[in-house]
Design brief:
The protein is α+β, with helices and mostly antiparallel strands. It has two domains: 145 residues; 233 residues, paralog of FGE (formylglycine-generating enzyme) (Alpha-Beta Complex), CATH 3.90.1580. It has nine helices and eleven strands. It has a four-stranded mixed beta sheet. Strands 5-6-7 form a three-stranded antiparallel beta sheet, with no helix packed on it. Strands 1-4 form a two-stranded antiparallel ribbon. Helix 1 packs parallel to helix 5, helix 2 runs parallel beside helix 4 and helix 2 runs antiparallel to helix 5.
């Protein structure tokens, strides 16, 4: 029997607090770059979301609604003015204790409202809020890792090793799997939750293609480095070469090379695992590697068809002996597809219409999920998206041809 929405929301809200437990108040204030929000801002913003979209329409509010409405709105222009994204780190007050009290107050009101019964529209917004919370749980991890990395001592987020946070190695041999292509259906159905950018379901024609059995590994990436991959402009897109040069990229984010290759992770610096998937690479790096390897990045439609095949694995683990491995739970996988609307896409009414649609410009689609993606959040039709130069997320690649 599946859990009720209230039970699932309570689990999600509690899990966010669990992620914060290893951090000090000072840790949670850090914002090293505009894109990496402070941990305590995530705690507050995910709370603000429920207050703004669920409680406010019901005439319910916390004692701090108006002040926090400015501080913890993210990008909703229709809601009003807000703290600039790059200056979230200067919000020293309210402190962590006050934000935790805010979460407690809003949660109490939320459980009260849900016990009284929400109409269909508010129930849909509450479901959206749950998945929004899960998105911020992954951002919580990627942001704190980036923020802590700026400390020359490279402190650990976790003091003890926890296999749950490992990017597991894979013993699958390299190789490609053939797919027929043809006229196929893409996108999410109406039977389960999805974000608006996954719809409408529609037909596309795909030529026959081949997809790599597994993700590109650290060892394979080292071969790219040592063959001069970062030094050859013929491998790079023009904008990629510009940023590689401007930022002196020589290897993925968090990598170091002294006596050997090391990488920074949630438990600090450690030797690189050769057979683990490479992560923290930009679209530009992934594209350059694919060209060096004589392959290309898959389109998002190829990825979805391959992942939907009964020869592939899935987040639910419903199939056996998959031809493709590491589709989910290791690293987000860059595709060559620009993040644009599906034919017939319509934004949701009201402020939540700003959730995805307005970002359909200048970004690329990633598919799958990473080891930091909350369980149950990934699905075959999920469309993640980032700018091509960004690499603080756990992003990797799978080759196609």
């Amino acid at each position: 029997m599946s859990l009720s929405l209230t039970a699932r929301l309570k689990e999600a809200r509690a899990h966010t607090l669990t992620l914060a437990q290893p951090l000090s108040s000072e840790d949670m204030q850090l914002q090293a770059e505009d894109f990496a929000s402070p941990s305590k801002w995530h705690l507050a913003h995910t709370t603000w979301f429920f207050e703004e979209f669920i409680l406010k329409p019901l005439g319910m509010k916390s004692g701090m609604q108006e002040a926090y409405r400015f501080l913890f709105n993210s990008y909703y222009e229709t809601i009003g003015e807000r703290q600039p994204q790059g200056k979230r780190g200067v919000i020293s007050r309210p402190g962590v204790a006050e934000i935790l009290a805010y979460r407690h107050e809003v949660d109490a009101l939320l459980w009260q409202a849900m016990a009284s019964g929400l109409d269909d529209q508010l129930m849909a917004l509450a479901e959206l809020g749950l998945h929004h919370e899960q998105q911020h749980q992954e951002l919580f991890i990627t942001d704190i890792l980036f923020n802590l990395y700026q400390n020359p001592l490279h402190p650990r987020y976790l003091e003890k090793h926890d296999a749950e946070w490992d990017i597991a190695a894979c013993d699958v041999a390299p190789g490609m799997v053939d797919f027929d292509g043809g006229l196929v259906e893409i996108g999410a159905s109406d039977t389960t939750f999805c974000f608006d950018n996954e719809q409408p379901r529609h037909q596309v024609f795909i030529a026959p293609f081949r997809m790599a059995k597994r993700l590109v590994t650290n060892a394979e990436w080292i071969a790219f480095i040592e063959d001069g991959g970062y030094e050859d402009p013929l491998l790079w897109l023009s904008d990629g070469w510009k940023i590689r040069t401007a930022e002196s990229w020589q290897m993925p984010l968090y990598w170091q090379h002294q006596a050997g290759y090391e990488t920074y992770g949630l438990t600090g610096m450690k030797a690189l695992e050769p057979n683990a998937p490479v992560t923290n690479i930009s679209y530009f790096e992934a594209d350059a590697y694919a060209r060096w390897a004589g392959k290309r990045l898959p389109t998002e439609f190829e990825w979805e068809i391959a992942a939907s095949s009964e020869r592939s694995d899935s987040p639910q683990g419903q199939t056996t002996e998959p031809a493709l491995s590491q589709l989910f739970g290791r690293a987000w996988q860059w595709t060559s597809s620009p993040y644009i609307a599906y034919p017939g896409f319509k934004t949701s009414p009201g402020a939540v219409g700003e959730y995805n649609g307005k970002f359909m410009n200048g970004q690329y689609v990633l598919r799958g999920s990473s080891f930091a993606t909350p369980k149950g959040h990934a699905r075959v039709s999920y469309r993640n998206f980032f700018y091509p130069h960004q690499r603080w997320q756990f992003t990797g690649l799978r080759l196609a041809e």
